[in-house]
Amino acid sequence: MKIKDENLVKGEIADYHFNENGILYSFSKSPKRTVKNITENIALVKEITKGKIVPLLIYLCDLPIPDKEARKFSTQQLPNVYKAMAMVSKPGLSKFIMNILFSLKKPLIPMKSFTDEKKAEEWLKQFL
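That's the STAS/SEC14 domain-containing protein sequence above. Prediction below.
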């Protein structure tokens, strides 16, 4: 998806665009995730969505593996901001990330991996 820079809300770990279709688009960045920057990111997302829990389409990039505390915190926080998550990436990357994040228990929200952003959007529409 091509979005003009001025239409993006910039964050440390991702930039965001909240579309009129009700889906939040996230363009992931590569800093290592920590409890601190995840907490700041959640506050940013809540500001963008005005506190509404929304479907998320995230464009993943290669990033360092977060430590156990950050993974656990992130997993616990997902239902507080997102209804569902569609991850768009090159083949294998999102599956690898999901395996790391959810190796102990299944995600608390519906999640699915895609290599095609149009299919990801279609899947998320059921959560609007």
